[in-house]
Amino acid sequence: MKPQIRISRILLLLLSIAVTLNCSKDESNFEPIGSDPCKSDPCSNPELCADSCNDNAGGITGELNREDLKPEGNVTETENGYMVEGKLSMETESGETVVFNEADLDVEFNEDGSLMSISGTAEVPSPSNYFEIADPVSADVGFFSGKFLNENRNFEIKLKDDRHYFVFAIAVALEVSVGANDDPDATKPITIAVPVGGHITLIQDFTDPMFFYSLGGSALGNNSGDGNNNGDGNNGDGNNDGNGNNEDDGEVMGVSFGASYGANLVYEPSLPVENIVSFDAKSVTGGTFSFWKVLEASGLYYQNKGFSVDFNLKEPMNSEIGYGYRAGINGNINFSADIKGIISFGFPIGKGSTAIVAEASSKEGIKAQAFVNGLVEPDLSWWPDFIPVKPNGNLNAYGYVEETGAFDLGLSGSLGLEMPTGNQGVQGSLRLTQNEFTMTGEVVSGDDVWGATAIITKDETRCIATAPNNFTDGISETVTAQIDQAIETTEKALEDLEKANENYEFELSLRGLRTALPGIIDRALAEINTAEDNGIKSGRSQANKILNDNNRKLCSDNIAAVVKSAVKPYKDALTRLKNAVNNSNDNAQTRTELEAALRNLAGLNKINKSVTVSITHGHKTFGCGNLWKQTNKRTIKINRTILNSTQVSQLNEAADNVKYIQEADGIRFDAQLIVDELPTMEELEGLKKNVEACVSELTEQLGDVGFVYNHETKEYTHFMVINGEEKEVGTFDIFNNSEIVASARLELGSCNTSEELKALQQRAKARR
Q1: Which of 86, 103, 352, 650 could make a disulfide contact with 333, Cβ separation 3.0–4.6 Å?
Q2: Are 99 and 89 in contact (CB under 8 A)?
Q3: What is the mean pLDDT of residues 532-551?
Q4: How far is residue 315's CA from residue 687's CA, in Å, rounded to a whole number?
Q5: What DSSP designation does 458 have?
Q6: Helices 588-602 and 659-676 sit at what angle, rounded to 10 degrees?
Q7: How is 223-281 classified by DSSP, letter by letter?
Q8: Going by DSSP bridges, is the β-strand pair 183-193/251-253 parallel, antiparallel, or unpaired?
């Protein structure tokens, strides 16, 4: 090997190591292609990198093998291939020869002869089939699998994982003629300018053939700019030629573009777009593109057709398109349109996808449409202030634009509806067409889901609430709430009266002791009778002793009378209590007598008396004449417990409980007064039934309800449709069934619960 070659390779190696140590995927500085194959492309180097590849891709390189490559010049064999200084020719499947002139390359192969890697510098080949570079350009070159580039490089496009690509780093501007209309003789000249401080990355698959120019993107680094390579101060649209001319002259300033003869450019929408999920594209161009002056999108524009001579970089829809045309772009989107007679405004759609479809139409020939799906950020600076419907957070934007300029765009998400009764959240969507501006959505109120629609015109917004299917459920309950409250009041009064009566009866029973009193009286009477009998018996015993001791006969005695007189107060107390207990009349007098009788008897719990009796006796033979008659006095003791301590306690407790009867009677009286002044349950139930029938008839007459907001005066006018006629009514919450019915009742003058209930209550008071 010549000394200068060794020096060149040593410098290249040192430069590669230095850049590898100082650059990463997130840096924009260019890294030379030459690098450790086990780091840069392990799956294409199974022998050297047996433990580094997980995809089992082996040495798949498309159609490139050792026999496809022919080195010329200074060729040095290496362990896995050779190093060439001079020229490297490559035969493709199509039979075309691709030539790397001014080559200084390290070429390595796998054991099966498939191409493993190429690194070094060479002039960029330009096969005449699909593009030609006007003047030779030297660049660093590398060879990688699509899988590796997708996972480790930030190129704008997604490459095929199972294909291999040559990657060139170019630091000078290019003049390129791109093949057009799939015709080798038809070309479109394009000037590729290098961005300031950057370079051009060219990706080629000669087996396709395919090429992609990435401006500012590094083969082993990151893209500078917005990730779409579509802006350099001119928005990347190729509109300004530097002389102030707004012509599409083919100059590409700060944009990326490419083409694939075999349609191996993959378009995948970042958000699903109607009619297109993904497709294989034949060409791609970065920039800002306008679609019929309604949508403007910035990003990479993919087409399922190759470049055409008439392709317009800034207005692709001005180019010739045909049946089956597909195109797509991911990036920032701007909507701008005039809704006839209503409003002209626009808004940004970020993180969106646009898909263009051309289909056959029976009426219009080939019909082209641009479908869009994206997110609108919660920035309301673009929203017209005079509209009472406002976005409330992120919105999803979707719809389409036609080549006629017609459009149908939706904005769905959380919305806010400004109402005089308070702002209301709406989950729904706005619809924009060239003729209409409307809103549809749902309002959740409690357990009910209402429909909400709005029609926005230049002068006003008309909002209509659609009642839920179960709208009538609960309305009768709402309207008859006053009656239900009256029923509850009457029920409570009746319940209180019942409790008052129960309490009165309890107190009247002396808290349960009244039932015990007859038993106490009977037992006390028995004890008194026993004491009386015992007293008389004691007197008789003494009288008999006198008669027997003196051999006399009894003329007369007052034993029974005296003893009975002694126990009479006890019997009278029993009789008094018995009469008081049995008196069914309850008043202050009877209560006083009852308490006195109880306490009187309780004080006579024992008989402990000594009484003197007279015994008159005479001669057994001569009788009881005055001459023979004689009287003796004797003392009789009457001692008997007629009430035990428990019975005395019961009597005293009962006497103490008498005082509660008056209070309970007062409560019972008041409770009865309340009941007497209220409508009866029968009257209230009848009124409720009549009102429910009225409400049922009323709700059947109700139609739409809503309001009209005047954009100029900022005033609200509420309305409701009753029996097919729209009537202006007072302010009410259009999503509240009770307020709706209340307004309808006022309008119709029917189902007046308050008045009918008031009349019923007045009649009840008049009955007293």
Answers
A1: 352
A2: yes
A3: 93
A4: 75
A5: S
A6: 160
A7: PSSSSS---SSSTTSS---SSS-----SEEES--EEEETT--EEE--SS-BTTBS-EEE
A8: parallel
